[in-house]
Design goal:
The protein has 9 helices and 7 strands, in the order αααααβαβαββαβββα. The chain has helices at residues 2-21, 25-47, 50-70, 72-84, 94-113, 129-132, 144-150, 190-201, 230-241, and strands at residues 118-122, 136-141, 161-165, 168-174, 205-210, 215-220, 223-225.
């Protein structure tokens, strides 16, 4: 009996991660193409068209190699996420979490009004240690004043990313990976590309303040939510965190 439960659990785990992989629009389009090929292959076999059947058989072998090449970045990122996942997560009390989020929102609101750029990553389940190690350790309680000071124009940490984990500002001046999405509009600078890049390889929530457009954006799982006010930003974060 326990073997059946184990097999079902493993199968569910595999299917779940495959579905996560196919969340991207590029992967969805490829999935549609695979479905069309499979349906065509089934029809050809039923009709007994031997030459087309031979051609499609060879095509499948080539397609496997092609998929590995096409999705090499996504496969690499998926393996990286799997290796970075914490076995346990420290859960903050709701009241404490509300307090931390309030400090972040107040800081972001002030930075937007001052037209000061910012890049803030909120850690969730995936470890951000590789990116923490690229910055300067801070290890302080989250406060709006400290966040604003870190991103003050001329500050040594102004141009890097800030990482918040649980109720602490862990590090500043961190370097995040840039997105490989070639379709991203040229209007987005390095902060947006770094924010999107980090969320493509981890489950972090990233907040971006654009100094050029004085705009607040949130990025999660590679998806960019633009031009948010402080209330919309807070609601979006709470929706992701399920609080």
């Amino acid at each position: 009996m326990w073997k059946v439960i184990l097999e079902i659990t493993i199968l569910w785990f595999i299917i779940y991660h495959i579905m996560l992989f196919f969340e991207t629009s590029r992967a969805v389009n490829v999935l549609k193409g695979i479905v069309i090929i499979l349906v065509s292959f089934f029809i050809i076999q039923r009709l007994g068209l031997s030459r087309l059947n031979w051609l499609f058989t060879k095509l499948f072998a080539i397609s496997i190699i092609a998929l590995l090449v096409i999705f090499q970045p996504e496969i690499r990122q998926g393996l990286a996420r799997l290796g970075q996942r914490y076995p346990f997560k420290l859960i903050l009390k709701r009241e404490h979490l509300e307090s931390v989020l309030k400090e972040i929102i107040v800081a972001v609101d002030h930075l937007q009004k001052k037209k000061v750029g910012a890049l803030i990553a909120i850690s969730r389940n995936d470890s951000l240690k590789p990116y923490i190690d690229t910055g300067i350790m801070i290890d302080a309680f989250v406060s709006s004043d400290l966040i604003e000071t870190i991103f003050t124009t001329g500050s040594p940490l102004h141009d890097g990313g800030l990482i918040i984990q649980n109720d602490r500002i862990v590090a500043g001046g961190c370097i995040f990976p840039l997105t490989e999405d070639i379709n991203l509009s040229r209007i987005y600078g390095m902060r947006h590309r770094a924010g999107i890049g980090l969320t493509e390889s981890t489950d972090a929530i990233v907040i971006i303040v654009s100094e050029e457009r004085s705009e607040i954006s949130l990025v999660y799982q590679g998806k960019l939510f633009q031009n948010l006010n402080r209330e919309e930003l807070l609601l979006k974060i709470k929706d992701i965190l399920k609080v």
